[in-house]
Amino acid sequence: MSSMVRDYMELCKPRVVMLMILTSLVGMCLATSASIPLLTLVFGNIGIALVAGAAAALNHVADQHIDKIMRRTQNRPIVQGKISSRNSIIFATILCVVGSLVLLYFTNVLTVVLTFLSLIGYAVFYTLYLKHVTPQNIVIGGIAGAVPPLLGWTAVTGSVSPQALLLVLIIYIWTPPHFWALAIHRFEDYAKAKIPMLPNTHGIPFTKLNIVLYTILLIIASSLPYLIGMSGLIYFIGVTFANIIFLLYVIRLFFSDDKKHAMAVFKYSISYLGILFLLLLIDHYYFLNMPRG
């Protein structure tokens, strides 16, 4: 792979997009007990990934002045001059148009509209506005990053259901402890960039308390699929263990002044979300294929 291709791939934040596609795939699978049309399964997720990549590329363009200041982002392609802002915008536009057309052809209009709205929510509303005006930026803007399972669901069914919205709720509640843990670890970076993240505006102890409270909310929300009969014991047992580990990480962070524990929470939270959605997928197909009577 050439360095130019790698740079354009980096604009799309591929690791983030891969996690999003896992959740959209699970949304598709949970939406039906029947088999999913192969073209919808493949190209639906490709379309969602392309639009998500476009949103990520626009985020790179909008945040380049901040990225120059923060250690975590100083090596991004636009900051390093490897890709111009103009070419990044052209690239993002192409991804958005192609992704939308793919979704329109292989899924339905509702999925196209919701996917485009999530792009606007993340790349415009969150990145250009919320991120700079309120320490609740992650809480308010988190909905844009929580919609992939809903997109997968609507791609298959063409409609919105309470079960799909529950999947969105889980990611929405997961987002604040995930990002606030990173914000604690990168406290100095956000201070230099003058971004009003919660640790910088209200202090690290207050942020730790909020991480604990949101983790408790997450434990409750992640138990709901079992409690409402959407999933079975495989999911419930697995997610209970994952929740216990998450809570232990968070409690250790709460009682420690070592910022390395914040990064440990951040890293585990990524694995946690992947584990949760894989458990939903495994549970769904296990009970779907169980002999009846």
Tell me what you see in this structure:
It contains 14 helices and no strands. The chain has 293 residues and is mostly helical. It folds into 2 domains: 157 residues, Orthogonal Bundle (Tetracycline Repressor, domain 2), CATH 1.10.357.140; 133 residues. Helix 6 packs antiparallel against helix 7 and helix 7 packs across helix 9. 46% of the residues are buried. The mean pLDDT is 94.
Give the topology:
Blueprint (H helix, E strand, L loop, with lengths): L2 H9 L2 H17 L7 H25 L1 H4 L17 H22 L2 H25 L3 H10 L1 H10 L4 H24 L1 H6 L5 H5 L1 H24 L5 H22 L5 H29 L5
Helix pairs in contact: 2-3, 2-8, 2-14, 3-5, 3-6, 3-8, 5-6, 6-7, 6-8, 7-9, 8-9, 9-12, 9-14, 12-13, 13-14
* The CATH superfamily title of the largest domain: UbiA prenyltransferase
Helicity, in percent?
over 70%
Q: What's the CATH architecture of the largest domain?
A: Orthogonal Bundle
**Main sheet attributes: strand count, strand direction, barrel closure:** none
What is the general shape?
Answer: globular
End-to-end C-alpha gap: 53 Å
Quaternary form:
single chain
Alpha-carbon Rg, integer: 19 Å
Mean pLDDT: 94
Structure summary, number of beta strands: 0
Estimate nothing, just give the exact number of structural domains.
2
Number of helices: 14
Secondary structure class reads mainly alpha
Name the helix and strand elements from N-terminus to C-terminus, one letter apiece.
HHHHHHHHHHHHHH
Proportion of strand residues: under 5%
Low-confidence stretches: none
Briefly, what CATH class of the largest domain? Answer: Mainly Alpha
CATH topology of the largest domain: Tetracycline Repressor, domain 2
